[in-house]
Amino acid sequence: MRNIFRLSVWGMLILLAVCQLSAQTDNEIINDELDAMTVLQVADKVTISYIDVDSKGNPIQRSNIFTIRPDGTIFHELLGAVSLANMTIAEAEEVLKEKFSQFFNQPRVALSVLEKTNIKVILYGEVSRVGVFPIKPNTRVAEFIIENGGTTPEADLARITVSRSDGGKVVFDMEKYLFTSEPVNNVILKDKDKIIVPRFKVQEKYGRLSKNYVLQYGNVLEITINEMALMETNPAQSESYVIDSEGNIFHRLFGLVHLGGITVDKSQEVLAEMAKRYFREPIVSVDVLELSSRNVFIFGSVLRPGIYPIEGNIQLAEFLANIGGLKDEADLRKIIITRRQGRPVEFNLEDFLFKRDDSKNVFLEDGDRVIVQKRQRGFFVRLSEKLQPFSIIFQVITTGLTLYLIFNR
To answer: Within 10 Å of residue 267's Cβ, how many Cβ atoms?
Structure first.
């Protein structure tokens, strides 16, 4: 019984050892595969081992250490100059085997990396972190940018430039890389590469490339309406408008115009048709200046309360005029702006209009809440309004009595 027990224990130990050896072998295979994918760079130190024969015909293993030179080659005593830079280890071994086959029937070659060169790159432009970064070998530009904080909202992802130390340039379309399966220049970064992420130019992109862009909330439009006969001699000035949350702009000539959800091309047709009321042969141009904007909330005695996007530097009085104006009941003397941080700001529109007092015509900020209150009326005004229905009835009665007396005479 004891012998059987001992045999079973030994069996379990042997099985465990075999499993452990198998796991180690699997890990080694995985590591070997990863190592084989390593890309060799200039200044890397590598060991090249191969089987040679001595003077008596006995096989011996020879190993040499090489540093990859600036031209991407090593100089081997038997093979001469061999180009290895920008190859994976597996690719380099195949090249070496082919070279050694001139001297051996079935050459066996092994290449390993002793020391990788220290790679540093510069990141600049519309990114979260500008600076000089040390990177691991075989790092690609997309992964590098993402790992170091990504880009700002103003970045032009389609025109990221990798400037090489040798004067070459690579343009990388990160937008295409992220959202499509099309091949792009997601290149492996090299030492002293400069990665520049430029600012996105909306007008250039949408004005030049396509009139099929669909207009939406927050877009800032540049609209120009010309009389065809006067375009060259007296061209009109362009005007900027912002599409509100309902898809409308408030045009100075046409009033409320719904443009959200239609293309830039279609919006030109809509405005051209409206312009025929004022122009003989109108020529309308619409360009998208900005895709999105900051928001301002407006409440109270205004014709169109709601949330409005703003772009650039716009002051309160101009903003109120652009959204369509105030109701008759609005108190022009005390318009309130409340801000996320800071005390409320009071603005007297009457002083601004009639006394030309611009001191409180503040620039609006993101998140501002503009409150236009109703006009406060005095006691006698409110009393007269309440008595007004009775005065009308009294007038009707007295008028009737007067007519009755006249006809009865």
So the answer is: 25
346 inside domain: yes
Tell me which of 1-15, 136-150, 288-302 is least confident.
1-15
- Over residues 54-93, the pLDDT tens digits come to 667 677 888 899 999 888 899 998 899 999 988 989 999 9
Residue 221 reports pLDDT greater than 60: yes
Question: Which one-letter amino acid corresponds to residue 23?
Answer: A
Identify the bridge partners of residue 332 per DSSP, sorted by sequence position: none
Give the closest residue to 95 by CA, choosing from 163, 151, 48.
Answer: 48
Q: State both tokens at 109.
A: 């070659």
Q: Tell me, what DSSP letter sits at residue 167?
A: S
Cα four-point dihedral sign 402, 403, 405, 409: positive
Give the residue from 94, 115, 136 where a domain finishes: 115
Question: Pick from 140, 167, 200: which residue ends a domain?
Answer: 200
pLDDT digits 0-9 by tens, 89-133: 999 999 999 999 888 888 889 999 888 777 889 999 999 889 999
Distance from C-alpha of 104 to C-alpha of 97, rounded to nearest angstrom: 9
Place of tokens 């000035």: 237
What's the DSSP call for residue 404? H
Q: Has residue 384 got a pLDDT over 80?
A: no
| CA separation for the pair 353, 105 (Å, rounded) | 98
18-39 burial, b for 16+ CB within 10 Å, e for fewer? eeeeeeeeeeeeeeeeeeeebb
> Which residue has 């949408």 as its token pair?
206
Res. 209 pLDDT band, cuts 50 70 90? very low
For 272, the domain range is 204-292
Which secondary structure element, helix H or strand E, spans residue 285, and what is its range? strand 282-290
Q: Residue 368 falls within a domain, yes or no?
A: yes
How many structural domains does the chain have? 5
CA distance to 80, 207, 235, 280, 297, per residue, from 226 (Å): 74, 18, 6, 10, 33
- What gap in Å lies between CA 157 and CA 171, rounded to an integer? 10
For residue 372 the two structure tokens come to 């236009």
Query: Does the model's pTM come out above 0.85?
Result: no
